[in-house]
Amino acid sequence: MKKSIGYRIFLVRGDDALPLSKTTFEEFLFGRRAVLQNFAGQTIDIATVVCRLENKKPKVIVRFYCQRFKVKSDGSIDQAHNQKRSVPAATLDRALVRNTINREKTGDPIDPSHGRRLAHSLVMISRAAQKKINEVLWR
Question: Which one of 6, 14, 46, 111 is most buried, by most CB atoms within 10 A?
């Protein structure tokens, strides 16, 4: 079994969370290319979930953070107005963390619908968006 660290990226708008390819995100952020035309003129949140992987599948969430970006009218990043700020999960959902830690210690399998929840709660995105991210990660 091959273990590694990986990450998944999601574009968040309100209660919706859409998976975003790493290539698209990197072209938007680093290449400053107009790749997000569907979100032109909007402020968007990008959620990044860092996971421990086994055979390329997420097994444990290591970190969950969010960045806010302004998209110009052409779909590229607005550097002048960029509100890029990383918020490393300001508030902890202690019950979820405790549930994940206890299951890891006991060696019990983690129930995909209950145990593998987002270990961190973000003040910037809704619980509904977090739930959608969770569903994508553990399907």
Answer: 46
